[in-house]
Amino acid sequence: MMTFPARSSEHACWVTPSLGRLMDRATGRPQDSLRTQSERSLAPGMHFPVDWEPYFNDSMTLLGIDHNPTQNYDHHRQQLTLAFARRR
Fold first, then answer.
1. CB 15 within 8 A of CB 80
2. What is the rounded CA–CA span in Å between residue 79 and residue 33?
3. Choosing a second label site near 24 at 20 to 30 A (CA), which of 7, 13, 30, 87?
4. The whole model's pTM is what?
5. How does pLDDT run along the chain (88 residues), one tens digit per residue?
6. Residue 62 forms part of a structural domain
7. What domain range includes position 85?
8. In a domain, 30, yes or no
9. Is residue 68 part of a domain?
10. Who's near 69: CB < 8 A, 6+ residues apart?
11. Does the residue 84 lie in any domain?
């Protein structure tokens, strides 16, 4: 069984309650679907053009492809958190 991070409203201090619920709805169904998949079913992969996206690798599995939006979200959350912290 694979583990995935907690939902947004449980760990992001800058997320308002309504934004947290929206994020949970947007990410919840894909996360729930991934939890039911075996590691074997997520192992197939293919080539990806690395210049399309900073978090793409030359070869990515389905798990890596599904993880990509999480990496982007965490990247931008960090940017927003740093910007918020500098204003304080």
1. no
2. 28
3. 87
4. 0.54
5. 444 455 544 444 555 677 777 877 777 777 788 889 898 998 999 998 888 888 889 999 998 888 888 888 888 878 777 655 666 5
6. yes
7. 47-88
8. no
9. yes
10. none
11. yes
